[in-house]
Amino acid sequence: MNQSDAVTALAALAQPHRLAAFRALVQAGPEGLSVGELREALGLAPATLTGHLNVLRHAGLVHDTREGRSIRVHAALDRMDALVAYLTENCCGGQPCAPPPPACC
Predict the structure, then answer these.
(1) If DSSP states are collapsed to H, E and C, what string results for the chain?
(2) 76: how many CB neighbours lie within 10 A of its CB?
(3) What is the pLDDT of residues 32-50, one digit of tens each?
(4) What is the mean pLDDT of the chain?
(5) Domain extents for the chain?
(6) Top-level CATH class of 3-87?
(7) What residues contact 12, with CB distance under 8 A and at least 6 apart?
(8) Strand pairing class (33-34; 70-75)
(9) What pLDDT, in 10s, does the model give residues 47-102?
(10) Does the pTM exceed 0.90?
């Protein structure tokens, strides 16, 4: 991940509803959530959720799969891991300072 990608991802997450949506998708794991399930969990209007998901998609933080007539949204866990790695790559001056975090999910 480069600086521009990191700034885009962090800017996307700097809004409370988008952060809540991303965290809900991370919690759901690789299965993700249907758009309806996510909308109900967050209590957002459909158009509002669509706008937030578009920002997260543009940042590469979520992706969709179609299941018949519904759409399932998934957190891009590899992108999340890359962002965390980018943010911590120079932690403690490059010296080990803590045990590495467990692999995601």
Answers:
(1) CCHHHHHHHHHHHCCHHHHHHHHHHHHHHHHCEEHHHHHHHHCCCHHHHHHHHHHHHHCCCEEEEEECCEEEEEECHHHHHHHHHHHHCCHHHHCCCCCCCCCCC
(2) 20
(3) 999 999 999 999 999 999 9
(4) 92
(5) 3-87
(6) mainly alpha
(7) 18, 55, 56, 58, 59, 61
(8) antiparallel
(9) 999 999 999 999 999 999 999 999 999 999 999 999 999 998 888 876 767 666 67
(10) no
